[in-house]
Specification:
634 residues, 8-stranded mixed sheet, 6-stranded mixed sheet, 22 helices
């Protein structure tokens, strides 16, 4: 590894490019600043939010440096956005509606009812949500939570629920609203590919980066993710259609379902008595992701644009304020219509123009380089790519329609990264020659090329200290010039790990609550993706589970390296090697590793017939995911 782990100053080309940004955009426009600070009521006295063991999970003062002038090591446009996002405290949106902002990546909204409050989107972790609720109560009184609403299925909008609500509250009649499909998508996204997404999210949000002008300054959508306990209480009321109305504690709500937009299960809410519109995460003060860099399924910009048009038609005639679960509100009907319409045009333009160029034979990367946005959209601050970007969103649209293959047969069967790197290094005259020429490219300011070519040297020889150091320096410069917060974080995290080693996964979303919310089908599927296939080719093991507290009989079979499960005893269910009768809770405990099979089968209330050793044998074919896998090295 490089002996010099210190962040470097900006190179002249990056400093000049960042200075040019100041001349390109209207930095004297302070409308967003006025809106972001409007209604401020106060903030927490204790700036550090801690968990039960005293560990800091959020620091309200971590971004105080943003009050200073933007240095050469940051894009001024991103610095401006981060400064706006870093304002923290309790804000009045309109009479009876309040937001806690700056306490996590997202906002928590509180709507006052006749005797209590409706909480919307209780942040990412229980500790920050509890701190936000305490702040509200300090200003507005100790009102009980009489309803809770999840706008969509991403963890930063439900993970803090146990900081504001308990199981006893729900059992006592407090409703939990969510869009149809919420639980399925919330659980599957965070469990099936949760380890990989969590590791990549460490890069995307940069939670482990030092905060400062040469480090993490924000993620565009918010500042970063908290690192406390991610929790979940399942919804009790599903919103199944646009136009559905619900009333809780005297609060009237009219819903618009928007599946397939920013999340697979999402909704907007109109509060007709408050003339207020909640846009969830469908219209925020940035270009959003069509494919998040942490990884997800590609979103549909065509559908997204249509739902924004529908929201304008349905709600803006009776709305005086529009707010979302990130950023700050927009007040006034004319401004709301303009804001939502420009957001609509943003996604529609990217979709249509990508398809136009795609049908002319351009590939995703070529389209990304050629895409130019209309001047009217580029002038609007809220269309800037602070979180999503024009570049990676156009590639996502290409992927949505045509997949990973660009049609060139030379790209159909390329060598994987290490094998390619070894061949590139040999063809290019060896590592020393590549690094000599790459250093000149670095001096010339061609940091994209340096990162591309030196990556081959690092993957061919990850112990090459000079290559790691130069690659880290190049990634760092690319980060300094990025207007996109997640790009900056990815670049700077890559530099950090090349210099200092892996930071792992700071925030774990695969929590006990999420695992408990898995249906049995999802639980069996989650186990199936952990089977170490090649080691299991010759295994043939069948286990049947008879559940005491429900009708289904479930038969698991490991064969040909595939773990399948069948409900019932039809032709697809093979004869079992072992059969166990037990409660569903006990089945979950053994499959999740909380109880050893031997302890289970020794109990009098559990009936077992057959070879009990087969249970351990089957579970022994499961591997563990790696939350610390390498990204910038092989």
């Amino acid at each position: 590894m490089s002996q010099n782990t210190e962040a470097k100053p900006a190179q002249p080309g990056i400093a000049e490019a960042n200075q040019a940004v100041r001349q390109r955009f209207p930095f004297d426009d302070d409308q967003d600043l006025q809106d972001a600070r409007r209604g401020f009521m106060g903030t927490a006295q204790d700036s550090v939010v801690r968990d039960g063991e005293g560990r800091a999970v959020w620091d309200l003062d971590a971004y105080g440096f943003l009050d200073q002038d933007c240095p050469d090591t940051a894009n001024p446009s991103l610095w401006r956005q981060s400064r706006l996002c870093s304002d923290h405290g309790l804000f009045e949106v309109t009479e009876g509606i309040y937001q806690v902002r700056g306490f996590d990546l997202s906002n928590m909204t509180i709507v006052e009812g006749e005797r209590g409050i409706l909480v919307i989107d209780p942040l990412l972790c229980a500790e920050t949500a509890a701190a936000g609720l305490a702040l509200y109560r300090g200003h507005r009184g100790d009102r009980p939570v009489t309803g809770l609403l999840y706008t969509h299925s991403h963890a930063d909008h439900f993970g803090g629920v146990r900081g504001v609500l308990t199981d006893e509250d729900v059992a006592g009649g407090v409703p939990v609203f969510a869009p149809q499909g919420f639980l399925e998508h919330a659980v599957s996204e965070n469990v099936y590919a949760g380890t990989a997404m969590g590791r990549r999210a460490a890069y995307m949000y940069g939670a482990a980066l030092p905060k400062g002008g040469r480090g993490q300054i924000g993620a565009g959508l918010g500042q970063t993710v908290s690192t406390g306990a991610v929790t979940l209480i399942p919804p009790t009321v599903d919103i199944t259609r646009t136009g559905q109305t619900e009333t809780v504690d005297g609060i009237r709500m009219v819903f618009q379902l928007t599946p397939g937009t920013e999340a697979p299960a999402e909704l907007n809410i109109h509060f007709p008595d408050r003339r207020a519109l909640c846009m969830a995460e469908n219209a925020t003060h940035n270009l959003h992701n069509l494919l998040t860099l942490r990884g997800a399924q590609v979103r549909d910009p065509r559908v997204w644009a249509r739902y924004l048009t529908e929201a304008v038609d349905l709600f803006t005639g009776s709305s005086d304020v529009a707010f979302a679960s990130h950023h700050w509100p927009v007040w006034g009907r004319e401004r709301i219509v303009g804001f939502l319409s420009e957001q609509r045009d943003l996604y529609a333009y990217l979709h249509d123009q990508t398809l136009r160029m795609l049908n002319q034979g351009l590939t995703g990367s070529e389209i990304a380089e050629r895409m130019e946005m209309p001047p009217a959209l580029e002038r609007a601050w809220h269309t800037h790519g602070y979180y999503g970007s024009v570049s990676h969103n156009t590639k996502a649209i290409y992927q949505r329609y045509l997949g990973w293959f660009d049609g060139n047969p030379a790209h159909l069967w390329e060598h994987p990264p290490v094998e390619s790197a070894q061949r590139y290094v040999e063809f290019m005259g060896g590592a020393d020659e590549i690094l000599r020429r790459a250093r000149q490219s670095y001096t010339d300011g061609d940091f994209r090329w340096v990162a591309q070519v030196v990556n081959h040297v690092v993957f061919a020889d990850p112990d090459n200290a000079e290559a790691r150091a130069l690659q880290a320096d190049a990634l760092e410069q690319l980060g300094y010039g990025s207007e996109n917060g997640t790009w900056r974080n990815f670049y700077l995290m890559g530099a950090l790990e090349l210099r200092e080693g892996s930071v792992g996964t700071p925030t774990n979303t695969v929590s006990p609550d999420l695992l408990a919310a898995l249906t049995l089908d999802q639980l069996f599927d989650a186990l199936a993706i952990r089977v170490e296939g090649p080691r299991s080719w010759d295994a043939d093991i069948t286990v049947r589970w008879n559940l005491d507290d429900s009708d289904p009989v479930v038969t698991m079979r490991l064969r040909n390296g595939v773990l399948t499960h069948v409900t019932g005893t039809g032709p697809a269910a093979a004869d079992p090697d072992v059969e166990i009768s037990l409660a569903e809770a006990d089945l979950r405990a053994v499959l999740l590793g909380a109880v050893a099979p031997a302890d289970l089968t020794a109990r009098d209330d559990i009936k077992v017939s057959g070879d009990t050793a087969k249970i351990n044998e089957l579970l022994g074919h499961l591997g563990a995911p790696d939350p610390d896998f390498a990204i910038v090295t092989p």
